[in-house]
Amino acid sequence: MNKSMSDTQTLLSVRRRIIGPSVKLAYRQPLHVARASMQYIFDADGRRYIDAYNNVPHVGHGHPRVLEAAVGQMALINTNTRYLHENLQRFAEALIATLPEPLRVCYFVNSGSEANELALRLARAHTGAIDLIVLDAAYHGNTNTMIDISPYKFNGPGGRGQPPWVHVARLPDVYRGEFKSTDPHAGPRYAESVGERIAQLRARDTGLCGYIAESCPSVGGQILLPEGYLAAVYSEVRAAGGVCMADEVQTGYGRLGKYFYGFEQQNVIPDIVVLGKPIGNGYPVAAVVTTPEIAASFDNGMEYFSTFGGNTVSCAVGLAVLEIVKSERLQAHAEAVGEHLLAQLRPLKDRYAIVGDVRGTGLFLGIELVRDRDTLAPAAAEASETTNRLREDGVLIGTDGPYHNVLKIRPPMPFDTDDADALVRSLDKALAALGS
Amino acid sequence: MNKSMSDTQTLLSVRRRIIGPSVKLAYRQPLHVARASMQYIFDADGRRYIDAYNNVPHVGHGHPRVLEAAVGQMALINTNTRYLHENLQRFAEALIATLPEPLRVCYFVNSGSEANELALRLARAHTGAIDLIVLDAAYHGNTNTMIDISPYKFNGPGGRGQPPWVHVARLPDVYRGEFKSTDPHAGPRYAESVGERIAQLRARDTGLCGYIAESCPSVGGQILLPEGYLAAVYSEVRAAGGVCMADEVQTGYGRLGKYFYGFEQQNVIPDIVVLGKPIGNGYPVAAVVTTPEIAASFDNGMEYFSTFGGNTVSCAVGLAVLEIVKSERLQAHAEAVGEHLLAQLRPLKDRYAIVGDVRGTGLFLGIELVRDRDTLAPAAAEASETTNRLREDGVLIGTDGPYHNVLKIRPPMPFDTDDADALVRSLDKALAALGS
């Protein structure tokens, strides 16, 4: 056993003893990381991995301009929103400039969980109602209430089931769901499931607080919503007095290539937009943007204070990330690289029976593995085997979806066509090995 | 109007337009901050303020070793707990070394709110029960469930009242409460209030999830729990099958001078300890430490993942802060400076009728202003006037307590005797001016 292997074994055994066992490691052979640069991670032995999984380092691991912004501000002052400082307003103005009217009021917090928590508080304050419609297989965070609104968790192992105020609408999955991609009306048809939940609430004379969904369900299986889905849903939700919330934690800031935000793909404007993971490039930053009307409803006498949210450093970092996304044209880059990658991934369907579906846009992609193309029996073990083989081959991807059979690709945005080609070569090898 | 004043006005008007109005500013004349160093903040005009309020920059604003740790790790790799990296184990080991057995298993998150959320999830998983006992006037965070368990919020303006699963025990306030500091049995007597809540649950055949309290209630009014209180409470809670949680977000890491954690002052060992604000010195870091048994109960099949919690940078920062607390002997410093400060604050009671109580330990102090020493009618307007005058005089403190009449002093730990003397001089002037 060489030195770094024994270090890794020691780390593992210490970790098992003093870190909560629910905090899991990826891969059957955990990756002992040492450094990273842009779209690459290097392990303790100096081996390079193409990072095709981590969307948090959005503009690239260790991007020098982000580092500079963080360091520069940390050296000056790191303090909270109870004092006036330019950075809060600067970041808020830059963020608002990426969003359509009437999304004009910002709140800053530390994580996607906290941002979704706040979105729900805003919606409840605005409507005076509690009941919420969510998508099946959705995940919105790790706090008590976020577990309560995440079927992926409350229906999963260790889950305590669905709270009475949460109403689960059908996941608009045109591959695995009832209405397929071949159905031009799949969008509105899936939306009917939301209408049914609203009708049930009306029948019980219960008010609707709102509807929340990821603009592209990610743990749900890297799903693109079918055309016309959100327009129909938003219209029904608003007619029932509810607030429409878009969880853009996975999709924001140009990852989808054609769209800066996922809701644009659906031609709707949410009442509340939730941003997380990528917007701080690894520094804990998240945000909620809403309308002046909803913000006014929330201003009911109760102060909202986040100790770290909107502090001078997180805003400096957030602003730098947004500027880099623009100045390095990462959205256009994601579109081009995504097309290049998809063009090579799609033919895998013809070569491997197990590849049931290849989907996504930009650098938000999913490959669904099935044991049978008619029954769509999920090939979860094979998906896990594939990600592990890729890891051994120097490429990091993950699995997700309610059946854990969807290969999940969402790299840092600097991921380029060479990386894409390398990923495809590794994937091709791994899929071929599955068959053998 | 000079340049910086007009900048401040512009900032204010932009802020009013694009930042949620529930996010409040301190002081009638908001402080436009520019930089900070150790226990001092400098405004946009270069004026220096003694920071006697912010406990977040625990080892000092912009401490160079914290900066170095953050920068060094950000340049290497900033990634999550699904990969192995030394920093997670190192920080966890250092943290555990500050805590008694059996507190041996760590979880890392981004904020006190998230840490209290996780503590509640742990307690619920361990007990299978939902119902929780909290202290009156407590504050545990800004998420939906934390508002639900915070009487300071749910009974305050904009609050929606007490949820049925939350049970409020009497705040053991020996100044304002039923049992006074002169009562040697005040501790056990206040604990009876918890016993009564447990008896009510038993009568309804409802299980007890646990009890949570700040080890020194801070928004409750900078209160020190009376002797024997927590020992009696913990014994009753455990006998009823509940989990005992200590929220050390305000009190951790030596602030109390004599004690590294607030629970030590009460001679108890909690089942779950919650840490936040100071432990990252401004970088968003929070932690939950519990027993192997509770951690095992939580390992029920549901993964716990925090995108940023426990990442390589937050652990590097957390470890640096802990090392600085030790190497700079900040606990002993807080004890000495706190005693020096208290010795000067106590005589203010004799000189000003409005000073009803001076309390605290180390650098966690409260001065309660009352209009009448018999009725204890809260002097909230006077407390606000006092903090504003101090701010104008170059000293930053705050107000808190259920009646907003307690002057709150909890400076960065490097705050020294000269700063203490300056604070007392300013306070003396402000209190004298109130009388005139």
Could you explain how this protein is built, in words?
- The structure is a homodimer of 436-residue chains.
- The first copy, chain A, is of the alpha/beta class and 436 residues long.
- Chain A has two domains: 3-59 and 329-435, Aspartate Aminotransferase, domain 1; 64-327, Aspartate Aminotransferase, domain 2 (3-Layer(aba) Sandwich).
- Chain A contains 15 helices and 15 strands.
- Chain A has helices at 3-18, 64-76, 86-96, 112-127, 144-148, 151-154, 186-203, 229-239, 262-265, 292-298, 312-327, 330-345, 348-351, 380-392, 417-435; strands at 33-37, 40-43, 48-51, 105-109, 131-135, 166-169, 208-214, 243-247, 272-275, 286-290, 355-361, 364-369, 395-396, 398-400, 406-409.
- The two termini of chain A are 31 Å apart.
- Chains A and B meet through helix 1, strand 1, helix 2, helix 3 and strand 4 of A and helix 1, strand 1, helix 2, helix 3 and strand 4 of B.
